[in-house]
């Protein structure tokens, strides 16, 4: 029995989750989200898969950013300017990745998921996600 592209992408997202390949999990769930017809919603399972995928991708970068920022402060207090400059460049790279990830999910939420959310549960879920990803942006942009 042939499965739909949507079912195949959901299956592949679950497979990617098992393999802890969260970037690919994001890609599969974005395909599911972007293929929705107008007024069609993600199922609760699909919604959770999307959330888990992005949570893991952003979580790793946030942890990296915190570690690098801490090292940067230590090197600054030691007056080690050469290291500080290298660290700042590296931190900037991580910040660009964080921005790209946040922008990706925020665009998906804004253009696709929030407008088609009909139940209170899904609307709250997506708006909470929106708030979370704006908070993640604020963590390093302030």
Keywords:
0% strand, 142 residues, mainly alpha
Q: N- to C-terminal separation?
A: 52 Å
Distinct helical segment count: 5
How many domain units? 1
Q: Which strand-content bin applies to the residues?
A: under 5%
N-to-C SSE string, H for helix and E for strand: HHHHH
Overall morphology:
elongated
Give me the Rg, rounded: 18 Å
CATH architecture: Up-down Bundle
- Could you report the average pLDDT, rounded to the nearest whole number? 96
CATH class: Mainly Alpha
Helix proportion? over 70%
Count every beta strand, where a strand is a DSSP E run of 2 or more residues.
Answer: 0
Main sheet?
none
**CATH homologous superfamily title:** 14-3-3 domain
Q: Which residue ranges are poorly predicted, with pLDDT under 50 across at least 5 consecutive positions?
A: none
Task: Walk me through the topology.
Blueprint: H1 5-18, H2 22-34, H3 44-78, H4 81-116, H5 120-141
Domain 14-3-3: 6-142
Family: Belongs to the 14-3-3 family.
Pfam family, one: 14-3-3
Structure explained in plain terms:
With about 140 residues, the protein is mainly α. It has one domain: 14-3-3 domain (Delta-Endotoxin, domain 1, Up-down Bundle). About 85% of the residues lie in helices and about 0% in strands. The protein has helices spanning about 5-20, 20-35, 45-80, 80-115, 120-140. Helix 1 runs antiparallel to helix 2 (about 20-35), helix 3 runs antiparallel to helix 4 (about 80-115) and helix 4 runs antiparallel to helix 5. The longest helix has about 35 residues, at about 80-115. The radius of gyration is 18 Å and the shape is elongated. The mean pLDDT is about 95. This is PIB01 14-3-3 protein. InterPro entries: 14-3-3, 14-3-3_CS, 14-3-3_dom_sf, 14-3-3_domain.
């Amino acid at each position: 029995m042939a499965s739909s592209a949507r079912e195949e992408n959901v299956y592949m997202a679950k497979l990617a989750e098992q393999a802890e390949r969260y970037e690919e999990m994001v890609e599969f769930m974005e395909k599911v989200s972007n293929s929705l017809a107008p007024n069609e919603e993600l199922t609760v399972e699909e919604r959770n898969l999307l959330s888990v995928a992005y949570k893991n991708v952003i979580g790793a970068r946030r942890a990296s950013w915190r570690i690098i920022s801490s090292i940067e402060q230590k090197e600054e207090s030691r007056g080690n300017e050469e290291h500080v400059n290298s660290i700042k460049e590296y931190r900037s790279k991580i910040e660009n990745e964080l921005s790209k990830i946040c922008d990706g999910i925020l665009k998906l939420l804004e253009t696709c998921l929030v407008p088609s959310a009909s139940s209170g549960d899904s609307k709250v879920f997506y708006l909470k996600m929106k708030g979370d990803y704006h908070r993640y942006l604020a963590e390093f942009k302030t």
